[in-house]
Write a structure and sequence with these properties.
single chain, alpha/beta, Rossmann fold, 10 helices, 10 strands, binds adenosine-5'-diphosphate, binds magnesium ion
């Protein structure tokens, strides 16, 4: 059948949708939503328009090899890098232009790659640095938060007068996470917390991340350790050279042969 030219122009009036139905979808509004994010370092484009979302209460992993753009994503989310295109929404509000310190006040708190504890400061002083961005309503709120951190990390309580720089890698990671928790995050951004740690310490750190998550904190976790991260995550995204190439439930991604081959060395 050939199509005959239609002499009558198509009716461009959209059909009347009628009264707007209230949404019946059970999916909650994302706490964080990233749309078409492009970030450049000078002429080098590190993120080519990525999209991702994190719902309230979720633990979501962003998996990717070295140089994929994971830290770049985290820095854009925390406001340390300005994207050249795209949007970052927090609770539906556009925060793309919001300054980093205001994002901390809003509850977006990053644990940077490499921990970055203040080496000359004691454990207690490091933890107190975490409170700077967020005002406590009263002294007891500060105490409660500190107690919570010490309960999660008894080692930090034991070592509270020790200089941060003299702690082991695992202890410094605990300190970096504890410092971020002092800001009472609503969205905790964890950038490769397992990097450079021994297998047993990695287990411990992931156990603590799962605990923080189960107690209600929403987490976006950046990792190369697919097994440890995805097995504990609600959902995950795979980032390859600045592009999201796969997304799905944590365990589903872990079962994906391509992901197993690329990140677990399993054929
Ligand atoms: N400060 C920088 N200046 C120039 N290029 C950078 C800078 N930081 C990262 N890059 C480049 O951006 C890309 C993504 O880096 P990054 O986000 O650090 O990756 P990942 O955290 O996944 O290892 C890489 O190609 C890296 O070389
Ligand atoms: Mg990185």
């Amino acid at each position: 059948m050939t199509r005959s030219p239609d002499p009558t122009p198509p009716d461009r009036t959209p059909p009347d949708p009628g009264p707007v139905e209230p949404t019946t979808s059970s999916a909650p509004e994302p706490l964080l939503e990233v749309r078409d994010l492009v970030v450049r370092y000078g002429r080098i484009e590190a993120l080519h328009g990525i999209a991702l979302a994190v719902a309230p209460g979720e633990l979501v992993t962003l998996l990717g090899a070295n140089g994929a753009g994971k830290s770049t994503t985290m820095r854009a989310l925390s406001g340390l890098l300005a994207p050249v295109r795209g949007e970052i929404l927090f609770e539906g509000r556009d925060i793309t232009q919001m300054a980093a310190h205001i994002r901390v006040k809003e509850g977006i708190v990053q644990v940077p790659e490499g921990r970055r504890v203040f080496p000359g400061m004691t454990v207690q002083e490091n933890l107190d640095m975490g409170c700077h961005g967020r005002k406590f309503p009263n002294k007891s709120a500060y105490r409660d938060t500190l107690d919570y951190v010490f309960e999660l990390f008894p080692r930090l309580l034991e070592r509270r007068k020790q200089a941060g720089g003299t702690m082991s890698g695992g202890e410094q990671q605990m300190l970096a996470i504890g410092r971020a928790l002092m800001a009472r995050p609503r969205l905790l951004l964890l950038d490769e917390p397992s990097m450079g740690l021994a297998p047993m310490v990695i287990q411990q750190i992931f156990g603590i991340i799962a605990k923080i998550h189960s107690e209600g904190t929403t987490i976006l976790l950046v990792e190369q350790n697919a097994q440890q991260a995805l097995s504990r995550s609600d959902r995950g995204y795979v980032l390859e050279t600045g592009t999201v190439t796969a997304a799905g439930e944590g365990r589903a991604l872990l079962g994906d042969p391509a992901i197993r081959a690329a990140y677990l060395g399993v054929a």
